[in-house]
Amino acid sequence: MTDQPDTHRESSEPAAAPLPRTAPPDPRSPTGVPEPPTAPDARRQSGERLTTAQGLRVDDTDHSLTAGPRGPVLLEDHHLREKITHFDHERIPERVVHARGAGAHGTFRAYGNAASVTKAAFLAEAEAETDVFVRFSTVLGSRGSADTVRDVRGFATKFYTSQGTFDLVGNNFPVFFIQDAVKFPDIIHAGKPHPDREIPQAQSAHDTFWDFISSHTESTHMAMWAMSDRGIPRSYRTMEGFGVHTFRLEAADGTTSLVKFHWKPALGVHSLVWEEAQIAQGADADFHRRDLADAIDAGAFPQWELGLQVMPDTPDETFEGIDLLDPTKIVPEELCPVQRVGIMTLHANPENYFAETEQVAFHVDHLVPGIHVTNDPLMQGRLFSYLDTQLSRLGGPNFAQLPINRPHAPVNDMLRDGMHQTAVHDGIVAYKPNALDDDRPTASPDDGFVTVATPVEGTKGRHHPVSFTDHFRQARLFWLSMTPVEQAHVAQAYAFELGKCASPRVQENMLASLARVDADLASRVATGLGLPVPAGDVPEGVEPSPALSQVPTEPGRVEGRVVGVLVADGADLGAVAALRSALGEEGVVVRVVAPHGGEVASGDASEPVDRTLLTTRSVEYDAVVIADGTAGTPLAADGRTHVLLQEAYRHGKAIAAVGDGTEVLRAAGVATEAPGVHVLDAGSDDAARVLRHDLGMHRAWARLEALAGL
């Protein structure tokens, strides 16, 4: 080790004069008492330089201290630890982020084909079943915010495996805004409501968020995902999930691979349209949590397949030129297909929201043998942050003893005491080695968790890897992968969000970033803002990834979808019952909507009313049917019927009018020849068939394109 210069030698300069015990009289003061010195207001922070809480000037707040450009983050990074620790303790008692969530219990069943890449038993053993608890959430809003805001969604899964608990703590986007955890407090502070007025709640449409995004161009790719339809999912059941980071898997023979985790929903990926999301916020702020709970209660159990993108564990930790340690980058599925390794089914709602959904504690460092972390600097910071957050939020170090967090594997941790200690530890020994208890509990060098021995070397410093500087290529890949209607939604989202910013400089800076993604995108957004179209150099040679588009090529599964049937007294209720039966075989929920509650009657037939025009809104339904026999009834004349049908039409939902129900449709001003609008003869039994197809396609995409003028 090189000798360091002695920085503690005595100075040869004369010592400073001692400070006087009292200040001399001030001739400028009328009382002769000296005026107090000009000093910062103790209640305010007024320094021009960024410092630690102790006043130490900070050299860099964008990069963690690592061992070399690609090495792990060092625990001695006092600025990272202080910044993250303070951030983790900002809110009491609700979560700082992901405060609003919904959860469910379920089971994961492994296919067994992952044994070649990991020795994790819950993945490697065919037909192995593992209990799980999943928590879905928004990121920015408080517990009292709405479900359908435009935001990232958390997708966190706790696997109660036989080898211990494994937490896959991911999102519904495969990338994140930042490359280094040291900036996580910054992006959340920027996204949270402005501190002076505490508005806007649970929204990114304001100045500080877009100032951060435009100032940190590494966020450009993630912002594209947030502005796409993925930012407003139709339900948790139709939402993809991603582990975000690259993990290292270890097989039984010691070989390793670099992998990315994916959750693929059985119902396909489906989102709301913007107006629909806004209506849902007002009509039902609990839209997503209600949808999840109702589906499980109805027996339409949500399912996702777990998939792996498996890549060689090379020394440079890259794949096809993509840096696998950069959390702002994806590996396109066309380059590395997702291999399905198991299926998760959620089949039980929580019995108590607080005890389970609110108290569940996830941690990226909850690993099992066969799964390891990598040196991704965002991931490394999360290893510290999550544990620290749980200590604050759940009142101490014993949160693992709460029933929802308790492992389903034997525990003997030798940890003692602390707040909320409920375990009864016997014996007098809480250390190893020991002679008083026959050196129990024993260690497990053969089948315990042993970190893969990867080399670490490098010079300490706040490094910025060169490969992390490509901030626009993958944002362009995402844009080019969208269909025309999806691109229209992205451009509209940017125009709306930036239009809510008061600062022209923020708008101009963001437009400059968009110009480096795509000229047409920048032009559309600039036109919406009434600003000049900036010029920018876009990356060349970028090929689209069709897997990123949400528009399906063929109909998918439909269980759990909801069809609203508009009826009135005197309508053809026999056809309604037949429709309920036919769609029920597919797991589709049919709800009867009428002008009044109770029952509707027609001759000897009757049907219970599920919703009235007063208690429903179009956002509840994936498709709408107008029954024969409704023309000339109070339902046909009610303006709320017209609003419901008009909204369903604008939102691209399937609409079927049977018999004189067509008159109700025309009275609402809905074009009966538009794509996805079906006019059926009285007595027709085609409604179930056409709705089954349209529900499987999610929306009438051709209609949405026409409405967007494409």
What's the SSE blueprint?
Blueprint lengths: L65 E2 L10 H11 L12 E10 L10 H4 L4 E10 L14 E9 L2 E8 L12 H8 L15 H9 L4 H8 L13 E2 L4 E4 L5 E10 L8 H10 L3 H11 L5 E10 L5 E2 L2 E2 L15 E10 L4 H6 L12 E2 L4 H17 L66 E2 L11 H9 L2 H16 L4 H12 L3 H11 L32 E5 L6 H12 L4 E6 L4 E4 L2 E4 L2 E2 L10 E4 L7 H4 L1 H12 L3 E5 L2 H7 L9 E4 L6 H10 L4 H7 L3
Parallel strand pairs: 15-16, 15-20, 16-19, 20-21, 21-22
Antiparallel strand pairs: 1-14, 2-3, 2-12, 3-4, 4-5, 6-8, 7-8, 7-13, 8-9, 9-12, 10-11, 17-18
Give a description of the structure:
It is globular, with a radius of gyration of 29 Å. The protein is α+β, with helices and mostly antiparallel strands. Strands 2, 3, 4, 5, 6, 7, 8, 9, 12 and 13 form a 10-stranded antiparallel β-sheet that branches. Strands 19-16-15-20-21-22 form a 6-stranded parallel β-sheet, with helices on both faces. It has 3 domains: about 80-400, Beta Barrel (Catalase HpII,  Chain A, domain 1); about 470-550, Catalase, four-helical domain (Hemocyanin, N-terminal domain, Up-down Bundle), CATH 1.20.1370.20; about 560-705, 3-Layer(aba) Sandwich (Rossmann fold). The model is unreliable at about 1-35 (pLDDT under 50). It contains 19 helices and 22 strands. α1 packs across α9 (about 375-395).
